[in-house]
Specification:
The complex is a heterodimer of chains A (531) and B (575). With 531 residues, chain A is an alpha+beta fold. Helix content of chain A is 47%, strand content 21%. Classes of the chains: A alpha+beta (531), B mainly alpha (575). At the A-B interface, α7 of A face α14, α15, α17 and α19 of B.
Chain lengths: 531, 575
């Protein structure tokens, strides 16, 4: 499922099914849904009847002419049917792949102490399953135990794995995604037929495709034009009669079919289906055609900073020593303090030290190391190693720590800290006992290519607004770097709602992009559009 | 004579542009109820009218109330005119003792003047008493024009108001259009026409002895006062049968120019009224430019076709080239006073709008020259158009254009920030659909019925053109004639009268409904992704949509009329 690849245009199986479907679509009850093609079919039938009559009565020259016209008319209807059937067929093929994912997945249902293998389709709400590294998550659910890296490329298109863990707002998992490390226990929250995957299947199959507002308006235009042109052709008969010519019905029909908008009328639904299909290929899940149209109308796009504009985690980018401390010593201390720190920030410090000074991670178990984990009270983490007490953490806490050990903060420290904050970074002060060694510059990393994407959005007429809980200084720096049009700093969920209402009051259509992790899990949809 | 054409058309175009801007801005003020210089005189009159009629000027109407008011007002006016015509022999101001007008003709005339068509199946000086002319016809000349302006203003409000429910008050718009717009201009223009020699009296007809000794009756009457509103209100119903070709209606080159300007003035001005009310003057200029370009296309084609004349005449050795001593070209049915350029220009102007006054006989035009007026009307008379009807017709085409453009851009189409959705398309299509229906269906009936064929005066395609033209001008509410058709028969009187009523009111209702649907929407501010409707690209697109819709609808019919006639003429066959 991860390697969802584009189906070849002329896949023999699809073509064959589509051909059969297109024959079925000649049924006038199906055609009646499309006024333009219905007219073509009715006239085709009429011409065929006249052809039959002339053939039986032996008017061969006339019959030959009528035969040509009848062929063209039937071909026109047939081609429109075939195009629609092809679009549907491709959607069905894709749905088939998705469905196979679901039916072939085996779930490790936890039954008391043991687990047993059951097909994923048999899971009911409330069942708890075990998912281990390499397994496909069998259904939508909540993690009740464990933490794992999950590859959600199948539904989000984001290739970087995300961490899902029990409790909090990162506990929801989706069927069809893959666990790539560790294990989790998942309580299933959706019965078969209601899962995300099921909805996706229904969508690509085009089974529940509703006409979009613009499609309805266009259909009205096409129907109106068809009526006008029928009037034109019908009135032409008496006009020609006055001129001493009797126009035969096949001739008038030929003119009518030339005039009425058969191309767009015949292909409209095929275009709609193919459009949804194409979106799915790009890992965009539009829940309805209406949503796609609304997306096209968006005037203002609100974006969460974290996870949307920036990679969710801050990364160490620089070691800034104070006074006469060597940069390398600072890096070494910082790395030691972070060795046991499994947070992305902590790992990034280890990696940076390794890259810049070739400092290897050491096996500290031998050295009688004692790790201090981060806590909300101390706002520091670090290590006690031999006689050294190395800590890294918030500026004021680190200064206090040094003071407790008889040291004091160097005069230049506040300047460094402020400079980092001004550039949108987070300063992390490293202290070794009484000595403050320096500052680690943690930086929000802007996703690659995001600037270019904003430029393209701007060209489409969308204004981008970044929303972040950061202070205005940091926010401004990141907004500048990412190239958004505007930003709101120190934002709360209420700020977001207020901002949306403000924009809507001006008549704008507002869209919101974010992973929703900070928003009370209001919505699992990555993007939502509200009018 | 190219220079002559360029100078004449150029001067006219510059004057139209110059007049339209102040007039349009003035109308925007009038209908917003803002103070104007005429207030000291007109305010008391306005208040008196409201008091007598029981109008509450501050009460606004929804589109349905507005439409009902407009329909009731027109229905009552039409009945009164019918009564006046039927009873004129018993009423005063009838020095020539005209008898009662026949029922079918009275119906046709009542429908014709109520709908601002002013098709005349009668000869004015030989049918209507002075009272009928003044109290019946001239009254309708004013109020049918004022009703058209009122509906246009209501439609503009539908486009520019936001999240509202009402479109204004019909009675107020009607009164203000008459008092502030039509009356003052007519007052001034009438005096100018009188100065130029147009009579305005209530005398009996004058009997004179001609140089040859024969006796000639010269018709008299209140001509100048009727002439101005006839042009200004794009009515077109002449006091005399010969209409503006009659020297008493249109005596001098100056009156010819002034009358043409009067025909375009309000229609052109309303585009700027639209721009001013929309708060973006360029929106008005875009519509003005669209109309102006279409006008120039038509005028060039008509002048070219008429100046070229008839190749068969040239082959017969007749000199048709323009020179200092003659206009050249096809002068059949044209006044020597006006020549080719001013005749063809007038023909274009009168059919661009729904005026229909003529200073030359369109029936005598070359096939292609006669095609221009026909196409102008088939486009829907939206090139400046009838007072009011031209603007709202153009707005419907604009809605259609932004819809098509919106689908190409990939955004929900917007016009002035209002989203164009299914309901709007339905109403716009209804508006567009009714027009060909009321032309083609009755024309098809007429062309195969005995009563219909009895009216045509020329055989072959020209006869067909006469019938097609008659139903086209009736549904477009133009009222000009391809004069060859003998239309004063029960068949034509009833059918054309009905077509006029359909062409007027069946199109006003959907357009008011469209305005009613738009007025409730909120307007999105324009963003970089909005398709701008005030630029060159929009003008080009709009012209394209207008021409393509008209061509697809009417080309097959036109091909059997003027076009085949033209081809036959080139081959040496004339009708």
């Amino acid at each position: 499922m991860a390697e969802r690849k584009a189906t070849a245009l002329w896949d023999a199986k699809i073509v064959k099914v589509a051909f059969n479907d297109s024959l079925r679509k000649f049924d006038p009850r199906i055609q009646a849904r499309n006024p333009v093609m219905f007219v073509v079919e009715v006239t085709a039938l009429a011409v065929t009847i006249i052809l039959g009559r002339d053939f039986v009565e032996g008017r061969m020259a006339l019959a030959g002419f009528e035969f040509q016209i009848a062929i063209w008319l039937w071909f026109t209807v047939g081609f429109a049917n075939f195009a629609e059937a092809m679009a549907e067929g491709r959607g069905k093929a894709q749905a088939e792949t998705l469905r196979r994912t679901r039916t072939e997945t085996q779930a490790k249902l936890i039954d008391g102490a043991a687990t047993k293998l059951v097909p994923a389709t048999q899971l009911r709400r409330g069942d708890v399953v075990l998912v281990e590294a390499g397994d496909v998550i069998p259904g939508d659910g909540e993690i009740v135990e464990g933490v794992a890296a999950v590859n959600e490329a199948a539904i989000t298109g984001e290739s970087a794995p995300v961490i899902r863990e029990s409790g909090g707002d990162r506990s929801a998992v989706t069927g069809g995604t893959t666990v790539i490390s560790d294990w989790i226990k998942v309580r299933i929250t959706a019965n078969p037929g209601e899962t995300f995957l099921d909805r996706m299947i229904a969508l690509v199959e085009g089974a529940h495709r509703q006409k979009t507002p613009n499609e309805i308006a266009l259909s009205i235009l096409l129907a109106g034009l068809t009526i006008i042109f029928m009037l034109v052709c019908i009135s032409l008969y008496p006009f020609a009669l006055y001129g001493g010519t009797s126009l035969s019905m096949p001739v008038l029909v030929a003119l009518l079919v030339c005039l009425i908008p058969t191309t767009i009328g015949g292909l409209l639904s095929a275009i709609g289906i193919a459009g949804m299909d194409r979106l799915v290929q790009h890992n965009v899940l539009a829940m309805s055609g209406r949503a796609v149209e609304a997306a096209g109308d968006v005037d203002t796009l609100l974006l969460d900073k974290t996870g949307t504009i920036t990679l969710g985690n801050r990364m160490a980018t620089e070691f800034i020593p104070v006074l006469d401390v060597r940069e390398e010593d600072l890096a070494d201390a910082a790395q030691l303090a972070s060795l046991a720190d499994e947070t992305p920030e902590g790992r990034s410090i280890v990696v940076l030290a390794k890259r810049q000074y070739n400092l290897r991670g050491r096996d500290l178990a031998e050295k009688d190391a004692h790790f201090i984990a981060f806590s909300a009270q101390t706002r520091m983490s670090g290590v006690d190693l031999g006689g050294r007490q190395i800590r890294k953490g918030a500026t004021d806490e680190a200064v206090k720590f040094a003071a407790e050990h008889g040291g004091k903060a160097p005069a230049e420290l506040p300047g460094i800290v402020e400079r980092i904050a001004k550039n949108g970074g987070t300063p992390l002060v490293v202290v070794d006992g009484a000595h403050i060694l320096g500052v680690i510059h943690l930086k929000d990393i802007i996703k690659e290519g995001i600037r270019e994407r904003f430029e393209r959005l701007r060209a489409m007429g969308m204004r981008t607004v970044m929303i972040t809980g950061d202070n205005p200084l940091t926010a401004a720096a990141i907004a500048y770097e990412a190239g958004v049009d505007d930003f709101r700093a120190e934002a709360t969920p209420e700020t977001k709602l207020r901002l949306i209402r403000e924009e809507q009051a001006q008549g704008k259509l507002v869209a919101m992009i974010g992973d929703g992790t900070n928003d009370h899990r209001r919505s699992r949809r990555p993007t939502s559009v509200s009018r | 004579m190219l220079a002559n054409a360029v100078i004449q058309v150029g001067i006219f175009s510059v004057l139209v542009t110059a007049i339209s801007v102040p007039l349009g801005l003035y109308m925007a003020r009038v209908f917003a109820g803002e103070p104007t210089r005429l207030d000291p005189i007109l305010k008391p009159v306005e208040r008196a009218i409201y008091r007598v009629c029981g109008v509450h000027p501050r009460t606004e109407q929804t589109w349905i109330e507005y439409a009902i008011s407009m329909l009731l007002f027109s229905a009552v006016g039409m009945l009164l005119l019918y009564g006046l015509e039927r009873l004129q022999q018993f009423l005063p101001f009838n020095p020539q003792h005209m008898s009662a007008v026949a029922p079918d003709l009275a119906f046709n005339t009542a429908a014709s003047f109520t709908t601002n068509t002013n098709w005349q199946a009668y000869g004015g000086e030989s049918t209507m008493s002075y009272l009928t002319q003044m109290a019946g016809l001239a009254y309708h000349n004013f109020v049918s024009a004022a009703a058209g302006i009122a509906v246009a203003i209501a439609v503009i409000r539908g486009f520019v108001r936001r999240s509202a429910t009402t479109l204004g008050n019909f009675w107020v718009d009607l009164t203000r259009a008459t008092l502030w717009v039509l009356m003052p201009i007519c007052f001034v223009l009438t005096l100018v026409l009188v100065w130029q020699g147009v009579p305005d009296n209530l005398s009996a007809y004058t009997q004179v002895k001609t140089l040859e000794g024969a006796t000639q009756t010269i018709a008299q009457g209140p001509v100048a006062s009727q002439e101005t509103i006839k042009e200004l209100g794009t009515n077109g119903g002449g006091f005399f049968n010969a209409n503006s070709a009659h020297p008493y209606e249109n005596p001098t080159p100056l009156t010819n120019l002034l009358e043409m300007l009067a025909i375009f003035a309000i229609g052109a001005g309303l585009t700027h009224t639209f721009g001013a009310m929309a708060g973006d003057r360029r929106q008005g200029w875009a519509l003005f430019a669209t109309m102006g370009l279409l006008f120039l296309m038509g005028a060039s084609a008509a002048i070219w076709a008429e100046q070229r004349g008839n190749p068969q005449f040239a082959a017969a050795g007749i000199n048709q080239t323009a020179s200092a001593s003659q206009s050249g070209g096809n002068m059949e049915g044209k006044e020597v006073r006006y020549g080719i350029v001013n005749s063809a220009l007038w023909a274009t102007v009168t059919t661009d709008t729904s005026c229909g006054a003529v200073n030359s006989m369109h029936d005598s035009y070359t096939p292609l020259g006669g095609l221009v007026p026909l196409v102008n009307m088939q486009i829907g008379e939206i090139i400046f158009g009838g007072v009011g009807s031209g603007l709202y017709g153009m707005l419907v085409m604009a809605v259609l254009s932004v819809f098509i453009a919106g689908l190409m851009v990939g955004r929900t189409p917007e016009y002035l920030g209002k989203k164009i959705e299914g309901r709007e398309m339905k109403l716009a299509m209804l508006f567009i659909l009714i027009f060909p229906a009321v032309i083609l269906i009755p024309a098809a009936v007429a062309i195969v019925s005995k009563a219909g064929l009895a009216g045509i005066s020329n055989p072959g395609p020209h006869g067909f053109s006469q019938i097609l033209y008659a139903y086209t001008e009736a549904s477009a509410n133009n009222g000009s004639a391809f004069a060859g058709l003998s239309a004063n028969t029960p068949f034509y009187n009833w059918s054309l009268g009905t077509v006029m009523l359909f062409g007027r009111f069946m199109m006003k209702i959907p357009v008011l409904a469209l305005a009613g649907s738009l007025v409730g929407k909120k307007a999105a501010p324009p963003s970089a992704g909005t398709f701008p409707t005030n630029g060159v690209i929009f003008v080009i697109l709009l012209i394209g949509v207008i021409l393509i819709v008209a061509a697809l609808t009417f080309f097959p019919a036109d091909a059997l009329g003027p076009i085949v006639e033209h081809l036959a003429m080139m081959k040496g066959k004339l009708y």
